[in-house]
Design a protein that fits this description.
The chain is 37% helix and 13% strand. By secondary structure, the chain is of the alpha/beta class.
Length: 327
């Protein structure tokens, strides 16, 4: 699979990575054996970028990655984790002592001395404007706890503030066919600055797979049940903030746009891969089959202009009004 570079850090990631939230928690149950099989399938398909966080299953996702990589010392996989959601979301908690403690915990979970990439995990907006926060992150690099750092953001404004910071290697942002606002300013700014873009929630929490109907029932421990209206965290993380009924209807239209040989999910991933400025896209997977199918999207032909235009028209008609004023 093709790899792209995080410009400032010169690290490399496969154009399609693997998000591992599903392997930790909040997407229903996945047993350890199946989780390891997902990682194996992704790696065998050419994925060289795993994204995780210290709160995914309270460290379970990180520990599962560590178990897998110990069994495959022949592989080179860039592992990115996140920190900051284990405490109350107050700016005063984003200090060097906490950063050391959080990154040390992740290093233990991952079984490594230095983490490839640590990202602030959607912190309070004021954190992005704090010199002290980024000085502390620079200290983690100097202490060789981490190789590089980035941020995971909720809004385009937060992304642009972070991109202006000279030490930021990457910005992780929701980007998909139901969340196009980052295309206008964030991706061009990142390209100019040499900041990598990690596109998350690429399938709009599964909506863009075309598998769900208005009657689909998700497990109680799935965020698509308990966070549908933002009860637990930012509602934009669940179905990209799109009302579920609208999302299902729009997803049916989206599925009909898939060229021959593409699944709807592969169409969604291929669309992101083609956006200038994207470094890697991180779909999750709950089975080896899903992991292989996601990775295969990287090898599909580029989408024709007519398909890209039709996707844009769908967004403008059905989705734009719901999401652009918030994120």
């Amino acid at each position: 699979m093709d790899e792209r570079t995080f410009g400032r850090s010169q690290q490399h990631a496969s154009v399609i990575g693997l998000g591992t939230w599903q392997l930790g928690a909040d997407w229903g149950d996945v047993d350890d054996k199946e989780a390891l099989a997902v990682l194996e399938a992704a790696a065998e398909a050419g994925v060289t970028f795993f994204d995780t966080a210290d709160v995914y299953g309270d460290g379970r996702s990180e520990e599962t990655i560590a178990t897998f990589l110990r069994s495959r010392p022949d592989l080179h996989v860039m592992v990115a984790t996140k920190m900051g959601r284990r405490v109350d979301q107050l700016p005063e908690n984003y200090v060097l002592d906490n950063f050391r403690a959080w990154s040390d915990r992740s290093r233990r979970n991952l079984g490594i001395d230095r983490i490839d990439l640590v990202q602030l995990h959607c912190p309070p907006t004021s954190v992005y404007s704090s010199d002290e926060v980024f000085d502390a992150l620079d200290t983690l690099v100097a202490e060789e706890r981490i190789a590089a750092y980035g941020v995971s953001v909720e809004t385009c404004e937060e992304a642009l503030t972070a991109i202006a910071r000279p030490g930021v290697a990457s910005v992780q942002i929701i980007l998909n066919a139901f969340r196009m606002k980052p295309l206008r300013a964030v991706l061009p700014a990142a390209q100019e600055a040499g900041v990598g873009i990690i596109a998350r929630v690429p399938l709009a929490s599964g909506l863009l797979s075309g598998k769900y109907t208005k009657d689909t029932v998700f497990p109680e421990n799935d965020h698509r049940t308990y966070n549908r209206h933002g009860e637990s965290f930012d509602v934009g993380e669940t179905f990209s903030g799109v009302d579920y009924t609208t999302g299902v209807e729009a997803a049916a239209e989206f599925s009909a746009l898939a060229p021959q040989g593409y699944t709807p999910a592969q169409l969604a991933l291929r669309w992101i891969v083609q956006q200038p400025g994207v470094t890697t896209v991180i779909p999750g997977a709950r089975s080896p089959e899903q992991a292989r199918a996601n990775a295969a999207a990287a090898e599909l032909p580029e989408l024709p202009e007519a398909t890209l235009a039709a996707i844009r028209d769908l967004y403008d008609r059905r989705i734009k009004e719901q999401v652009e004023n918030r994120w």
